[in-house]
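Human: You know discrete backbone vocabularies at least as well as I do. Show me how you would write down a chain together with its backbone fold. No explanation is needed for now; the record alone will do.

Assistant:
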Amino acid sequence: MMSASYTSLLEGSTSPGLFSWRGDPDRDLIGEAETAGWRALHLDTTDVHSVEAFYDEVTAAWGLPSWFGRNLDALFDVLGDLTVTPLVLVWDGLRELSAIDPMQAAAVLDVLRDAAGQAASFAVIVRDDFGISEFDGLL
């Protein structure tokens, strides 16, 4: 696992991917990304209590149409559409999703990693401390 800075990611000297945030929890990651020319989305699933509620939050937070498929394949497809331009996704609440359904949480992380691997510039910043090594690095 490597350690990088958020600034180096936004400047392009750190490759995008799936990162675990270890910095100031109040830092304006969205604002900094937008200032640097990236599109930025926030996903807050800290109050979800079901997988259905997770997809409700994804749909609402990202402004997806009502016909969004609400499954992992649809999530991957929509990420393909969203990442045609550089995108930072800041996610709070992976811990809560994992507590509800660990398999779903792991599958969502896999989808995010696959989408990051397919996109030219897509970074996911997870602001939950898990102490696990599934992430590409620390910011």
Observations:
- The chain has six helices and six strands.
